[in-house]
TrEMBL record, chain A:
Name this polypeptide is given: Cytochrome C oxidase, mono-heme subunit/FixO
InterPro entries: Cyt_c-like_dom_sf, Cyt_c_oxidase_monohaem-su/FixO
GO terms of molecular function: electron transfer activity; heme binding
Domain of life: Bacteria
Phylogenetic classification of the source organism: Bacteria, Pseudomonadati, Planctomycetota, Planctomycetia, Planctomycetia incertae sedis
Organism: Saltatorellus ferox
Pfam families, alphabetized: FixO
Automatic annotation (TrEMBL), chain B:
GO annotation, biological process: aerobic respiration; electron transport coupled proton transport; respiratory electron transport chain
GO CC term (a single one): membrane
Thylakoid among keywords: no
Gene Ontology molecular function terms on file: cytochrome-c oxidase activity; heme binding
The keyword GTP-binding is annotated on this UniProt entry: no
Protein name: Cytochrome oxidase subunit I profile domain-containing protein
Gene3D superfamilies recorded: Cytochrome c oxidase-like, subunit I domain (1.20.210.10)
Domain of life: Bacteria
Pfam families: COX1
Domain Cytochrome oxidase subunit I profile, first and last residues per copy: 24-466
Organism in which the protein naturally occurs: Saltatorellus ferox
Record key words, sorted: Electron transport, Membrane, Respiratory chain, Transmembrane, Transmembrane helix, Transport
TM spans (from-to): 29-53, 73-96, 108-128, 140-164, 176-200, 212-233, 245-262, 274-296, 317-339, 359-378, 390-414, 434-457
PANTHER family: CYTOCHROME C OXIDASE SUBUNIT 1, CYTOCHROME C OXIDASE SUBUNIT 1 HOMOLOG, BACTEROID
Length: 209, 498
């Protein structure tokens, strides 16, 4: 065998080895893991994690992807003793592989310009807060550097508009506008907030060694 | 190489090199020229992204320019447009020179260049209209990234053909790296795209596929090209051989063995099986082997000749890049340590680190290579040594400012976030001055890029003087005097001959 084929072989072998080691073997280890039913304190059973509904939540996840929220927000809680994620109230326990079995792909994130969102549904249950925050984060969080997403809303000045069935109509605070103004989320805006409402990592879950 | 054009054997060599350079002219100019276009566009996108982080009202009403779209658009234009295209240009030229054959398949390579441009343009457009994937470094939709990876089959076939028909029997270490890179990149790109977009991998395995890929784009694609260039141009400009052939081979195989495994250090503390994170940390530590061998080898080649950086633009850019390689790799290995990662992860510290790799190391070497190659392709001189100076200093100062500001700021950000008594909003506010420093640094770097683009434009339009001797930072006479004063030979940057 000549020099050139030898290099080609070596080069391929090393990269294939790491593909197996870092991706295919862990995938094999975790593949069989799926949602689990869990006995709740009140006797009922819950399936965790649950599928997103295809009506609002799954399209909402697409909006989250499309607008690149992942570049400022992670969705993973680090274990106790490693950072202060749990102390900050970003989750009650660390995130584990099972939390992500239905997510394709998971938005675990690598940047925390904003807070972790793995459990935002529990931390901030108010939809109205989310709509105002999304419209302009400076309304709810003065000094925030999160972009405003006004294009996810229809704005009406003067008279209250008639929102379509199922769409909330939210007045902007008087300190923010001169004239009475209402916002109504678009289809995508409503879907995004519905998706945020699904973000929670509850129950005790086993770690994987 | 010290050349005397009157020596008949040398004169034949000179002619041969000119024939090879001429064969590569159109192809390499196309890849280089396109890369500079993407560099300019990428810099604009970078500035917009950076400004939005401290002044969120900036261009806020246009959905297609929202932060979460311009940021990936910036990354993908600079990686797949600027860095990859300049890399392919250098790769083709170096391969032809080192194999001592004319560049084959010229029409095909021009078509491939046009195709590559079209794909990067379509991919970037798709990100801006909201079809990006939000998977870092793989934001192009799969129907763009697969065709991009597949066109590399042409490059693999081409390098194999060139190596088999080579007229110089000895394989120089640069050829090893370049050949490795052409095989690694398409494999990584296609495998990662398939795993992430198909059910072949599930859940967190998709995240490990993501970081296996993203880490290796730098490690197994841009790094080998950067090192191949440094290994070629440093000895070439100095006119002395590389310090040790054996060290360079050890460096190559240890890089091939260990770099692959380091990617999961981007997921430390994350929801992975514990052993995976350990593997990533071990891989990162092992990276000390290739890094130290390369650093020692380059340093010993340069030893005693650092003063030549005063004269040669190529050398100045490339030595800056080669030194950054050592710094960024050591920093990368340390970042995989738990106690460093606990603070630096999820902060601007990581962003600073990434730029030290792709910019300070890779891009500076790419600039240096282009300063050497383009005059030989066009047979004209660079029009202005002042613009080269502006380019160098704006980019070097900008980069250092970028790195210091964001590393420092990111570290503070990490310490504050890890202290639960500090309200999150205080962290956000505390970062603002550091984010401003990044916008200023980015502006400086963009000024450098514009100077470079002007130079390249004028070069392609053949506005420079006929190539007699290379553009140096000082006149030939100053250089000779300075060299005499320090008992060094006159700058052997070589004329057309080298």
């Amino acid at each position: 065998m000549n020099r050139v084929s030898l290099i080609a072989l070596g080069v391929l072998a090393t990269v294939i080895a790491s593909l197996f080691g870092l991706v295919l073997i862990p995938n094999f280890q975790l593949e069989s893991m799926g949602p689990r039913s869990i006995q709740q304190p009140d006797g009922s059973t819950a399936v965790y994690p649950a599928e997103l509904d295809s009506y609002l939540e799954a399209p909402g996840r697409e909006v989250y992807r499309d607008l690149g929220c992942v570049y400022c927000h992670s969705q993973q809680v680090r274990p106790e003793g490693f950072g202060a994620d749990i102390e900050r109230g970003w989750g009650a326990r660390r995130s584990v592989p099972r939390d992500y079995v239905l997510q394709s792909p998971p938005f675990m994130g690598t940047m925390r310009t904003g807070p972790d969102l793995a459990n935002i549904a529990d931390r901030q249950p108010s939809q109205e807060w989310h709509y105002l925050h999304l419209y302009d984060p400076r309304i709810t969080s003065p000094g925030s550097v999160m972009p405003s997403f006004k294009f996810l809303f229809d704005t009406t000045v003067g008279e209250a508009p008639r929102a379509p069935l199922g769409f909330p109509m939210i007045p902007l605070p008087e300190t923010y506008v001169d004239e009475p103004t209402w916002i109504v989320p678009t289809e995508r805006g409503r879907a995004l907030i519905a998706y945020l409402g699904t973000l929670r990592q509850p129950f005790e879950m086993e770690e994987v060694q | 190489m010290e050349t005397d054009p009157r020596d008949p054997g040398r004169a034949a060599d000179v002619r041969e090199r000119a024939v090879i350079d001429r064969s590569a002219r159109e192809v390499v100019l196309l890849w280089y020229g396109s890369s500079v276009f993407w560099l300019l566009l990428g810099s604009m996108l970078a500035l917009v992204t950076s400004i939005k982080l401290h002044t969120p009202g900036f261009l806020a009403d246009w959905e297609w320019l929202t932060f979460g779209r311009v940021r990936p658009a910036h990354l993908n234009t600079v990686i797949y447009g600027w860095a990859s295209m300049s890399g392919v240009g250098t790769l083709l030229w170096l391969m032809a020179r080192l194999c001592k054959i004319r560049l084959p398949w010229r029409e095909g390579l021009i078509l491939a260049g046009i195709y590559w441009n079209a794909m990067v343009a379509i991919g970037t457009f798709q990100i801006l209209v909201g079809n990006g994937t939000s998977i870092e470094w793989l934001e192009f939709p799969w129907w763009v990234s697969i065709p991009l990876g597949v066109v590399f089959l042409v490059l693999i076939a081409l390098t194999v053909k060139m190596l088999r028909t080579r007229r110089e029997k000895h394989l120089y270490v640069s050829q090893w790296y370049l050949f490795g890179a052409t095989i690694w990149f398409p494999f990584l790109y296609v495998a990662a795209t398939v795993l992430i977009h198909s059910p072949a991998a599930t859940g967190v395995a998709k995240a490990t596929a993501n970081w296996w890929f993203a880490h290796n784009v730098l490690g197994l694609w841009l790094t080998p090209i950067g090192l191949a260039s440094a290994y070629y141009f440093i000895p070439k400009v100095l006119g002395r051989p590389i310090h040790s052939y054996y060290l360079s081979i050890i460096g190559f195989w240890s890089l091939a063995l260990f770099y692959n495994w380091a990617g999961t250090h981007h997921l430390i503390g994350g929801p992975l099986p514990a052993w995976l994170v350990t593997v990533g940390t071990v891989g990162s530590m092992m990276m000390f082997v290739p890094v130290i061998t390369v650093a020692v080898n380059h340093h010993l080649t340069m030893a005693g000749h650092f003063s030549k950086m005063r004269f040669s633009p190529t050398l100045r850019f490339i030595v800056f890049g080669a030194m950054s390689y050592t710094v960024v790799s050591v920093q990368g290995s340390l970042t995989a340590l738990r106690m460093v990662n606990e603070v630096g992860h999820f902060t601007h510290y990581t962003i600073a680190h990434a730029h030290l790799g792709v910019y300070s190391f890779y891009s500076m070497i790419a600039f240096g290579s282009m300063y050497y190659v383009m005059p030989r392709l066009v047979e004209r001189e660079w029009v202005s040594s002042r613009l080269i100076k502006i380019h160098f200093w704006a980019c070097a100062v900008g980069m250092i400012m970028y790195w210091v500001g964001l590393s420092f700021g990111g570290w503070i950000q990490g310490l504050m976030m890890n202290n639960p008594d500090v309200p999150f909003m205080d962290v956000v506010q505390r970062m603002i001055p550091y984010l401003w420093s990044r916008s200023i640094a980015g502006t400086l770097m963009t000024i450098g890029h514009v100077s470079f683009a002007i130079l390249v434009w004028k070069m392609i339009r053949r506005e420079g003087a006929w190539l007699v001797e290379p553009t140096l930072f000082v006149t030939r006479k100053d250089a000779r005097e300075a060299a005499n004063a320090s008992h060094l030979p006159a700058p052997a940057t070589g004329g057309h001959a080298s």
